[in-house]
Specification:
The chain has four helices and 17 strands. The protein folds into four domains: 2-85, no CATH class; 93-181, Immunoglobulins (Immunoglobulin-like, Sandwich), CATH 2.60.40; 198-289, Immunoglobulin-like; 312-430, no CATH class. It is 24% helix and 27% strand. With 430 residues, it is α+β, with helices and mostly antiparallel strands.
Amino acid sequence: MMLNQEIAIFVLMITMFFGGIYFSPVEEIDRVNKIDILENQRTIYNRTNWEDLEILPYGDGTNWEDWEILPYGDGTNWEDWEILPFGEETFDEIFNGIINHDGDPETNYYELKLDATNSVDLDGDEIKYIWTQTSGDTLEIPNPNDKILYLKVSPGEYEFQLEAMDSYGSRGTFNKRVVVSEEPNSQPDPIVEFGSRLDEKKFIGTIIHDGNPETNKFDLKLDAGGSNDEESDKIEYVWTQISGNKLDMSNNKSQVVYLQAEAGEYSFKLDVTDSYGTTSSYTQAVAIDIEPNSPPEAIFSITNEAEPIVYKDGPTWLNVPDSVENFQAKNGLTVDGIWGPASQKRFLKIASDKKAKADKAKAEKAKAEKAKADKAAKKKADKKAREMKIYNDKLAKIEAKIKNVRGFGSAGKRRELEAEKEAHIKTKPK
């Protein structure tokens, strides 16, 4: 055991003397073939001499492949070093992410950015990057050698490793676990407004008295406008009648439903579902009272009065207050407010005179319109007669010329006149 320790100390001193190990606390290690950063298992030795160091082997400790040497700080003195066994993989950090609630259940992924910008090389060498997914559902890494990766990650646990390599082939590795939680979603809150009067959880309504016993139904409005979703997701509504005389609820997926219910007791359920399929329900009982109606009060009076005469062809305004008195005063009759024979006779005379005047005006208008039409027709006929006379006179002249054609060249002359006649016939007035 002492021999192994002495050998380890000797190798460590030789390594430090020649400056063979450099370490950057930011994920890059130079000139060491394999070094893991064990953040949660680092042991710092503040020792001033080698006798105070205890070196523990990994495995059986019979060869150097079981050992790893990690510097801490700038590596210029013994207090900067720790010696750790090379063995079980340890993750430097665990990153927890939660998918943002965006109201769309189809976008159930987390936008993950892996950024190696802070990786450095103490010698200023160019660094090459190699990204590897070591566990979890397989993700597409289109450019595994980029400094920055952008991934879309579904809920679950993933592990990634970044390997940084300088131009000398020295490598540093960094491991990280990523835990992505499901997109949170709260249940929508269903609220129903039934009306203005509630008895605990029962809405009570009364059919309004409107003087028509045929309209014995209550206009019931079910309003889910007060329902809400904590994340402002789109809400879908479904109304269900649970009990009572069956009502027409064909429009049961609207935010507001209008029903006509007869007197009786009913119960309704509202289901509200957000875009993620989460549903909440609300149930409400309804009681509708019958239309109230009071009995009429019977009262009659007794007077000395004959039955009034009803004139079927009388005026339509007899029941208008003061109409009879106004008519009697205007036409020089006795003003008593009673529509008797004198008033009826005067009314018929006025109606007859008005009709006769209207008939006379109508006849005179018809006569004047006929005279105007006759004059226009005569003028048109005279014009046509003049046009026909001109047409016939010219036609007669052409025919006379055709008849009198004689001598040499008469055949050609006759053809010209016949053509002229044919063209003139086409101009005959219609």
